[in-house]
Amino acid sequence: MQKIIKIGGNVVDNPELLEKFIIDFAAMDGPKILVHGGGVMASQLQKELGRQPVMIEGRRVTDEETLKVVTMVYAGWCSKSIVALLQKHGCNAIGLCGADANLIEATKRPAGRIDYGFVGDVDPSMINAGFLLSLMEQGITPVISAITHDKAGSLLNTNADTIASSVAVAMSHAEAAKTEDGKPYVSLIYCFEKDGVLYDKDDDSSLIREITPASYAALKAEGRVAAGMIPKLDNSFRALDSGVSRVIVKHARNLLNGIGTTLCL
Amino acid sequence: MQKIIKIGGNVVDNPELLEKFIIDFAAMDGPKILVHGGGVMASQLQKELGRQPVMIEGRRVTDEETLKVVTMVYAGWCSKSIVALLQKHGCNAIGLCGADANLIEATKRPAGRIDYGFVGDVDPSMINAGFLLSLMEQGITPVISAITHDKAGSLLNTNADTIASSVAVAMSHAEAAKTEDGKPYVSLIYCFEKDGVLYDKDDDSSLIREITPASYAALKAEGRVAAGMIPKLDNSFRALDSGVSRVIVKHARNLLNGIGTTLCL
Predict the structure, then answer these.
(1) Out of B76, B84, B138, whose CB is closest to A77?
(2) CA angle (A39 as vertex; A37, A45 as ends), nearest 5
(3) What is the ipTM of this complex?
(4) Burial environment of residue A136 by CB neighbours within 10 A (0 to 12, 13 to 18, 19 or more)
(5) Measured in Å, how far apart are chain A's first and last C-alpha atoms?
(6) Which of A245, A248, A249, B56 is the most exposed place for a label (fewest CB within 10 A)?
């Protein structure tokens, strides 16, 4: 089973939680890929430089100066300090952005109603799965930051959740070609700062263990799913439809135990 | 002939010179590795963040905050924007620091008369030449930033000239094992903002075409070598003694032509 694991900016920005997570991640058997954000730190650096982060519908408007900041933070400090910690704990990691070895060639989002600037959109066909496989065959664990490129010289700020699901789908296709029954075995795991999807968002004990498309529709109809979770879950069901074996949403501290929400078809 | 090419912070910080250099570098045939600095930009970011860069004998004193800045600048913005430009010009590059795939495990410099903080020292035995070769065999060009690690979780700020010569020596040993006559074929090329070593430092037309250990001793005795060049040239002669075929010092704009100073034994 190949595992694609995504951690968000709140985990990356919490040194204790991050090191516990890194130790657990390093201890996991089998091929694995880590995708990380770093948005909390990027906003902080923008403020230290006297600029105000501009977010529209949860996405960062990325002008040239902001592109420099997010590249420095995600592909620089977050990526390399995560890799150094993984190396400390015996995991031979490599920190990559989408420009490296042309790993993810994205499309600059056209300026419509909103001009997000240097923001890239990705889909599974844009992932260089062959290069990721060649690294994993050498025992090297890819750590991917949410910076891509347009192959015309521009870096692009890209949503880390979408990178994680696109990588998972691309790896599913690559793996399916290799297994005897043609079935892929790829899990996509989103780690954040809640135990999973909660029935009552203010009650941590109301964890939903499993969500199917039918129960998801019912939860949405009841207004039980927090607005911020909807893109993540929509995205997850699309990944399942596209060949990913399972998607799990869980707390970063629970990487190695069974606590979390499993999405399945 | 394998080429290890180093560009300094003044080249990285000059967008026109950098893009011309990148186009030339992308056009060069054969296996090649780029090592880059970024010190000018790092000092600028330190100042924008309200801190004063502290340099002693040309080396940056690197406390925790400075380590974060140099990692963001060298391994983040400089590395990834160089890689994106190389991809634009048809060179399949990958940006690496020493923590990535355990490429360069350095030793933290002990605090002596001066405590440089998070500064690492390297030698050729610390370079993971096998990983560089495996990338080059896949047609991927390594771009190395001057950040290493101690394998105990710390990143370390490291001199880019020393990384370049250590990589060149390590690749010489790896290449010598592969050639029929046991001879390595590795060039080390330092690109900076002068045509090479000048006989009169204020006269750009006084370029010295070739320096041997004997002529170098004479130049030093006459006081003809600028103080800043001495560590670079000492380092270069050590690389020649350790198996590198030739060392060339030249202007970044002259990468593809013969103008420069060649050091030979």
Answers:
(1) B76
(2) 130
(3) 0.95
(4) middle
(5) 18
(6) B56
Judge contact between B240 and B246, C-beta under 8 A.
yes
Could you tell me if residue B91 is left (phi over 0), alpha (psi between -120 and 50 degrees) or otherwise beta? beta
In this structure, how many other beta carbons lie within 10 angstroms of the beta carbon of residue B50? 8
Does B15 contact chain A (CB < 8 Å)?
no
Residue B182 pLDDT > 90: no
Q: Identify the bridge partners of residue A119 per DSSP, sorted by sequence position.
A: A157
Nearest to B83 among A79, A100, A131 (CB): A100
Per-residue confidence (pLDDT) for residue B224, from 0 to 100: 87
Tally of CB atoms within 10 A around A121 = 17
Residue A8, pLDDT > 90, answer no
The beta strand positions in A171-237, using DSSP E, are: 186-192, 210-211
* Degrees to nearest 5, angle at CA B109 with B103 and B111: 160
Q: What is the mean pLDDT of residues B141-147?
A: 98
Give residue-wise pLDDT tens across range A74-103. Answer: 999 999 999 999 999 999 999 999 999 999
* B231: Cα separation from own chain's centroid: 13
Q: What domains does chain A contain, in order, with CATH numbers?
A: 2-263 (3.40.1160.10)
For the residues of B209-221, what is the DSSP string, one character each? -EE-HHHHHHHHH
Q: From its phi and psi, is residue A258 left (phi > 0), alpha (psi between -120 and 50) or beta?
A: alpha
The answer on pLDDT for A130 being more than 80 is yes
| B71 with A77: Cβ contact below 8 A | yes
Indicate the length of chain B as a whole number. 265
Kindly report the nearest CA distance between residue B97 and chain A, in angstroms. Answer: 8
What pLDDT, on the 0 to 100 scale, is given for residue A182?
67
